[in-house]
Specification:
The protein is mainly α. It has helices at 2-19, 23-86, 103-131, 136-173, 176-179, 181-200, 202-214; strands spanning 89-92, 95-98. The protein contains 7 helices and 2 strands. Helix 2 (23-86) runs antiparallel to helix 7, helix 3 runs antiparallel to helix 4 (136-173) and helix 4 (136-173) runs antiparallel to helix 6. The longest helix has 64 residues, at 23-86.
Amino acid sequence: MQGGRWDEGNFQDRQRLRAIPNPLHHDHEISSVDALSAQNRHQQRDQPQTQQEGPVSFKLKAALVIGGIFQFLVVVALVVAIVLIVTTSQTVNGAMIVYSDYMPFTYAFITAIVAVVYLICDMGSSVFRLAVEQWPATKEILLWITFIGEQVIIYVLVTSASACAAALTLFDKFEKCDEYDKFCTQLKVAIAVLFVGAVMLVVPVLVSTYCFYTRRM
């Protein structure tokens, strides 16, 4: 009898011990749940970013393409201006004047040539940065050159065109354009084309500025 009561008491004690929750097991379950929750949050946070990488990359490439198109248009405009400047001459009463007789027009001619050479190289740089995924250091250097170079080019174009416009204003003031009408007219057209090229160059400058500050492409 006593043995049976003792066994029955031990059985009841074991049942009570099983009913008491194990804090170590509970903490382990909480840690597992927290880890799974953190992993799910991390995956949910990364998923939109992955989905956005495609559209953002497409927008950057589209911006570079648009910038390249405007660069090409600027080159065409500058070539037209160069041709107009270099062919400007007129002879009146045996006296011949050419563009190189006046410093502002020579300055505009030189800056237009430099701008054309730079923009052609810059278009090659844009194609390289758009097509090549390796060599990030080289792409970073080219991005710096594009960012600074385009701003310098737009500055020299505006200053050269402004200097030519000021010179022609003096021609009009002293009635030189009445005598050398063809000379003045052709240079006025060349200056207008230079200003148009400088305005169109604003678009590539904005694209390169965006790429520079986002460090993309």
